[in-house]
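Q: How would the C-alpha cells look for this protein?
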Amino acid sequence: MQLALPTRGLAGYTSGSQRARVATESWASENLYCPNCDSPRLSSAPANTAVVDYICPRCESPFQLKAQSRPLVGRIVDAAYAAMVAAIRRNQTPNLFALHYEPLHWKVTSLILIPRFAFPLSAIEKRKPLGPNARRAGWVGCNILLAAIPLDARIPVIAGGKSISPNSVRHQFSRLRPLEKMRAEKRGWTLDVLNVVRSIGRDEFQLADVYARENALAELHPGNRHIRDKIRQQLQILRDLSLLEFLGAGSYHLR
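A: Here is the predicted structure in C-alpha cell form.
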C-alpha cells in the first residue's frame, strides 16, 4: 500500500475538507482491497449510492470509507442514528474502513477495518438533534464508539505508518465471519461479552472476572434479568467460534 495521499488536482478546491475528501477517496480507489476474497481492488459504488462507497468486483461485498485527521480513538462521526440502528438490525451495514491521515505531511498513518457483522448496537451513540436554525433542523446523527467494538473486530490494515500483510487482514476477517450468520440481537450480546473479556486485560481469566462486570452488561441490555446465564451462554459461543479456549473449572484462555 502507498501511504502518500495523492495531491494532483487539489488546488482547484477551496476548502481543506474538500481537498481531504478528494485525496482520501482517490487513495482508497488505488489502494483498498477486499478482505472477504482475494480481489486486489475495490470498485467505486455508483454515484449517489447511500452509505456504500466501494463494492468488491468479485464477491460484491459493500464498503464504506470514513477518513479523519484525528487519531482513530474515541468516536467516529457517522450518519443518521435511526438509519444506522435499522441497518444493524437488518444486517445491512457495509464493512467500514476508518482512515486516519496526517494533514501536515499529507499521508495515511493508520487504517482499520470493522467488518459489517461486528457492529453491536452498544457502539452506536445518538447525537443531539440539529438546532432549529440548521438546514436539516431536528436531524439526529450518530457516532460510532470504537471502544464498544471488540479489539478483535478493529482489524488493523495500516498501523504506525506501516501496512499489514493482506493475508493477515484476511485471516482476521475470516475468523470473525461466523458472526455473520447470527441474528443481530444475539450477535450484539456476543460482541459485548467479548469486549468485556478483552477489558479484563489478561489472556487467561476466570468466569468470576466476567461476572464482576455484569453491571456494565446489564446497562447495555436492560431488558434481560438473567445476566449471568447470558454470560455463560456467550462464553460458550465465543469458545465455539474459536475465540476462547475453555481450560476447565471456570478458567478461559483468549486465543
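The chain has two domains: 10-176, 185-254.

The mean pLDDT is 94.

Upvote if useful.
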